[in-house]
């Protein structure tokens, strides 16, 4: 075995909190100790693990960057023989330029720093707003093996830094990430890592952050791939974990890569399970990292609020979720009984607060102003706003965060009331089209082996119940028509013209496109929520409000 | 004069609308005809004048980019002997890369294209999200003179493309801009342009867009500077204009620059006048470009709503501004009379809708839920939300946009009610600290030669009037203490620690910093409003909501 080095690699898939520098440092040290106890030769932490990812404009504060450097210096004092690779913000001593960097530490010292080369500046990412790209490829020797370090985006490019480092002799690449979840990503990620391992004939150790940060959920899913591209160890998604794996590495690039011993490989989750887990983790972390324990949800008896309540219960525990039924003069008796059945099934409390008295009071106060005008959308919105105000009053009085229940289809076309059903701190399912809401509800019931979300809730025709016998499909096309067009228009950046050319009905497409554009101002005042797609309403999609394009 | 070329240069300081490709094209052609009629040899239009600036994620739609190219091709057919320089999105034929570009057109043809080199990706700018940087420096001959073209940011760098083009022989640089206003910018801009002219020994013709686009106001202020750095012609700020100036240019760099004939030079505006004009233009364009004619404003009798009403009246005309007084059980009689006096002075209508009935109805409906709890902020917020809901009902019924009246000091520390006084489509003064609100109110009265905004409104102690004898300074430090700390913390990116080191009271600074951080979630759901500072709440400042940094 003289030609080979046997390395025990630890990947610390931790959940840091943005800005909590000291808490993050403590977490890093806890996991470092655990890695030492498990005999690791090296342990890698996620991208910018000291600051949490993404720190956004916090890094524009010189004082913040200095503090993150000070915290790194403190951590390093506790680093012994086991190497640690720690993500931090580096600052050049001679300039104001900052770098997204990894410190390679051993025996109380930073033995080297790698600065990220490729800075993503698309979708939700703004890294060119902050960082200067690195240009160097330092390599490190660990137990005689040549090791490279890269950061996130660096590994996505075929002829990027990972290939360069491999060509310079690296037989292992430690790639540290803050790589947010979207549906379908883990497969693409695994394939990409596999190609990169094969291309460079090197072992890839990929560690990713876990946890929710505003819109983003980081899914972990850290993994180690042999030089032949096979996954030899992987961590679970959506939970903190220290993944440990022994890898056997040639001490020289000219020696063929040996057969690796396999480590623990996590059972893969179905896509629906991943989406549900992302909703749960995103919600839990948003609520708890912002200092809340309890949430309140308006339960309409419909499917959207049912799913949000199910997610919240799984995220926070049933004793921390509070349901409110707010019947109007137009509510069906089924709405109330469905809401009550759901609450019973989930084990959450429910109270009923009728909206009629406040609604009637508004109508009376507005009577002189509205004289001669007939009822219209105004009165529907009023009822929705009484509900919103009622939820906010409970939030203020009891310190509960309001979870809002709009889905992506509604939010896209503006089929909601600003300051009404859209009120709240977090919009749990804002990135799920309505058809996906049904799918995830069915998944949830199946997984639990019973109809926690009542079948009557799933099977009834969607309605806002703001006027007699109202149904969504009186205002909108059926969701199986609406959702595919929205996906093309919103997520795939097609113009209305292009969608019509694909064979969709011109009148419907033009109407939907116009609704999406007109309602940008409403979305802009909406709460954040879990990003599930590759283009969520939020940092992913930055369209002007004032926008007369109609193509 | 054989060594010299005499060029008549037109700068078309137009107000395009983002996405209105055909309207923008028509406007470009109108101004082109006017320039031809005035005998111009060349006329330059602003940056991305076909799409309007900034088009944001619209340029991620391939169909949008193709349409903008088609529109350019159509415009070019009407271009005759007078050169036109037109901003558009260029796409490489062989790739998906797009460029922020200028087409130089004559006699029905695009004779050349310049692609912007320097792409701003800071503050409100995200150009690296979209565009590939250009690398070439094409030069053009107009009446025997060597002319360079650059775009916006290109001219801000001392050794950038303008210098390169000058060294290659350009004696005139046509610099086309979408350069947003902030207080103090025009002076900095003039100085920079003057340096650039002197450095390159070339004439600079700077043309800037005018108009409001969501948060941004473009102030125009186009100007021509001689090679010695003096301003020889300038357009007014905040209005559309075709600036025409004859410039005499050496046909070779080796000939000394001659004395230019002076053109029209606009009277400079005071900084307060610029700020007021920016508020007016930003509000007018937001309202009208989004298809509204009328606005509604809650008039409290306080200074914030008074200034917003004054701005709206100037922007839209008094017949399009509707005031609403919404007294509570805690309103002073002075509040109502001040609001009425203001409305009379501005010539706008005012109606009174008491909030007591709806407030009382909520309290009654919530009584069972609130049993055993004493009154707190909940009841104050409830009143504010009744006001917000009332304004939205009027908005829905009459199609009036609600203008919201919060100032930057309040918004910074979260001293407002979400879904209450913050409701509305546009937050006119959101980027003015409270002390600046006073200053602009006094400016407005002085400019009009009478107290249109009543002195009693200006001199009374600020109060939300949501509980008996409430005053802002019971909850917040006085504004002359608060505002300077906020400026350091919010606009200058200082940490609390650094501000304390500057000599400010530690307890106050820590409390304010914490309030600013804690209220990020409230601001995120706020309406857009005119950017006046170099760091407005909006695209300028991208801090995480989930953020435990307390440095």
Structure report:
The structure is a homodimer of 551-residue chains. Chain A is built from 18 helices and 19 strands. In chain A, helix 7 (303-316) packs across helix 12. In chain A, the strands form four sheets. Chain A has a six-stranded mixed sheet with strand order 5-4-3-2-1-14, with helices on one face. In chain A, strands 6-7-8-9-12-13 form a six-stranded mixed sheet, covered by helices on one side. With 551 residues, chain A is an alpha/beta fold. Chain A folds into two domains: 4-264, Nitrilase/N-carbamoyl-D-aminoacid amidohydrolase (4-Layer Sandwich); 273-472, Rossmann fold (3-Layer(aba) Sandwich), CATH 3.40.50.620. The model of chain A has no long low-confidence stretch (mean pLDDT 96). Chain A is elongated and about 90 Å long. Helices cover 38% and strands 19% of the residues of chain A. Chains A and B meet through helix 2, helix 6, helix 9 and helix 10 of A and helix 2, helix 6, helix 9 and helix 10 of B.
Please outline what is shown here:
The structure is a homodimer of 551-residue chains. Chain A contains 18 helices and 19 strands.
């Amino acid at each position: 075995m003289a030609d080979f080095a046997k390395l025990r690699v630890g990947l610390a898939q931790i959940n840091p909190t943005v800005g909590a520098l000291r808490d993050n440092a403590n977490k890093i040290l806890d996991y470092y100790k655990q890695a030492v106890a498990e005999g690791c030769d090296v342990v890698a932490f996620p991208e910018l693990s000291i600051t949490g990812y993404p720190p956004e404009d916090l890094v524009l504060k010189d004082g913040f960057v200095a503090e993150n450097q000070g915290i790194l210096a403190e951590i390093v004092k506790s680093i012994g023989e086991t190497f640690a690779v720690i993500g931090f913000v580096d600052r050049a001593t001679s300039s104001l330029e900052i770098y997204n960097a990894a410190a390679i530490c051993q025996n109380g010292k930073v033995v080297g720093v790698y600065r990220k080369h490729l800075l993503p500046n698309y979708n939700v990412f703004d890294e060119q707003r902050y960082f200067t790209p690195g240009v160097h490829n330092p390599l490190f020797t660990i137990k005689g093996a040549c090791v490279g370090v890269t950061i996130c985006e660096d590994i996505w490019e075929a002829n990027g830094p990972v290939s360069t480092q491999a060509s310079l002799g690296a037989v292992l690449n430690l790639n540290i990430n803050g790589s947010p979840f979207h549906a379908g990503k883990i497969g693409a990620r695994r394939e990409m890592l596999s190609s990169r391992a094969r291309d460079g004939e090197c072992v890839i150790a990929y560690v990713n952050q876990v946890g929710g940060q505003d819109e983003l959920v980081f899914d972990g899913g850290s993994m180690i791939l042999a030089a032949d591209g096979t996954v030899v160890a992987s961590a679970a998604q959506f939970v903190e974990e220290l993944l440990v794996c022994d890898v056997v590495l040639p001490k020289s690039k000219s020696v063929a890569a040996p057969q690796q011993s396999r480590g623990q490989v996590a059972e893969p989750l179905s896509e629906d399970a991943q989406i549900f887990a992302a909703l749960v983790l995103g919600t839990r972390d948003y609520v708890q990292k912002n200092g809340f324990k309890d949430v309140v949800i308006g339960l309409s008896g419909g499917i959207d609020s049912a799913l949000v309540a199910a997610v919240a219960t799984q995220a926070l525990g049933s004793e921390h979720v509070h349901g409110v039924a707010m019947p109007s003069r137009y509510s069906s008796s089924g709405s109330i009984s469905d809401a009550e059945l759901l609450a019973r099934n989930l084990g959450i409390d429910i109270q009923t607060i009728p909206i009629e008295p406040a609604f009637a009071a508004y109508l009376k106060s507005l009577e002189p102003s509205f004289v001669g005008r007939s009822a219209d959308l105004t009165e529907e919105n009023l009822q929705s706003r009484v509900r919103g105000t009622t939820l906010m009053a409970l939030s203020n009085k009891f310190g509960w965060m309001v979870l809002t229940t709009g889905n992506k289809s509604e939010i896209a076309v503006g089929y909601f009331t600003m300051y009404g059903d859209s009120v709240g701190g977090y919009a749990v399912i804002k990135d799920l089209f309505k058809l996906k809401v049904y799918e995830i509800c069915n998944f949830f019931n199946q997984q639990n082996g019973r109809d926690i979300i009542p079948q009557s809730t799933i099977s009834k025709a969607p309605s806002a119940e703001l006027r007699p016998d109202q149904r969504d499909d009186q205002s909108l096309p059926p969701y199986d028509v609406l959702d595919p067009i929205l996906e093309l228009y919103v997520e795939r950046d097609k113009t209305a013209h292009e969608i019509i050319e694909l064979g969709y009905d011109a009148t419907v497409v033009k109407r939907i496109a116009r609704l999406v554009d007109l309602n940008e101002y409403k979305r802009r005042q909406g709460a954040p929520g879990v990003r599930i797609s590759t283009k969520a309403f939020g940092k992913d999609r930055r369209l002007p409000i004032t926008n007369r394009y109609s193509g």
